[in-house]
Amino acid sequence: MRCPFCEATDTKVIDSRSSKDGYVVRRRRSCEHCKSRFTTYEKIEDLLPMVVKKDYRREAFDRKKILKGVQQACQKRPVSIETIDSIVDSIEKHFMERNDKEIESREVGELLMDALREVDQVAYVRFASVYREFRDVGEFMVELEDLLAKEGESKGE
User: Fold this and answer.
1) From residue 25, how far is each of 15, 21, 69, 70, 137 by CA, in Å?
2) If you placed Cys at 15, which of 28, 36, 43, 104 could pair as Cys (CB 3.0 to 4.6 Å)?
3) Do 25 and 78 lie in a common domain?
4) Has residue 3 been placed in a domain?
5) Distance (Å, rounded) from C-alpha 37 to C-alpha 16?
6) Domain identity same for 55 and 35
7) Residue 150 located in a structural domain
8) Same domain, 32 and 85
9) Are 103 and 92 in contact (CB under 8 A)?
10) Based on the domain organization, do 20 and 95 belong to the same domain?
11) Among candidates 2, 85, 3, which has minimal Cα distance to 37?
């Protein structure tokens, strides 16, 4: 492993830890040349499905793109990065376990909206407004009314 500070290739592993779900190994490393320490993550390379977009284009499943969308929806909201990572991890794991070669972008968006609805309703509405491409305030209000109705049902009202 190349040192990110001095680019020497002589590094050693100081500590290894498996993540909670066992899919990632975190390794703490030390450079023998400059004595700097850094962390690497080892993950099984999975073949994720192709995502079929609304216009029928196909593109590779991109965790970073999903993460960016969730982070934008949760911006300035009391949602921890751990929670955001957990949402993205669960979406990625869901599609890995299904073992499909292709999935519709609609499925990804719906799963993300369901997860965000449980975590933060403002983040959910932000994500939904972009994902569903609201064109006016009326469409936005319909989504809010639906959210309020579901909240009332869950509280037994």
Assistant:
1) 10, 10, 26, 24, 46
2) 28
3) no
4) no
5) 13
6) no
7) yes
8) no
9) no
10) no
11) 3
Q: How far is CA 55 from CA 43, 85, 110, 132, 135, in A?
A: 32, 28, 17, 14, 19
pLDDT for res 22: 77
- State the residue range of the domain holding 28: 11-43
Into how many domains does the chain fold? 2
Which helix (H) or strand (E) is 59 found in, with range?
A: strand 58-60
Q: Does residue 121 sit in helix, strand or coil? A: helix
Blockwise average pLDDT, block size 10, the chain, 157 residues = 94 89 87 96 80 94 94 95 94 89 94 93 88 74 77 66
CB 16 within 8 A of CB 27: yes
Instruction: Record the tokens describing residue 52, joined without a space.
Output: 């079929």
Asked if residue 114 belongs to a domain, the reply is yes
Do 37 and 62 have their domain in common? no
CA distances from 61 to 9, 22, 56 (A): 32, 22, 14
Helix (H) or strand (E) holding 126: helix 121-131
What burial class does residue 112 get, using C-beta atoms within 10 Å of its C-beta: 0-12 exposed, 13-18 middle, 19+ buried?
A: buried
Q: Are 45 and 24 in contact (CB under 8 A)?
A: no
Do 59 and 111 belong to one domain?
Answer: yes
Based on the domain organization, do 18 and 90 belong to the same domain?
Answer: no
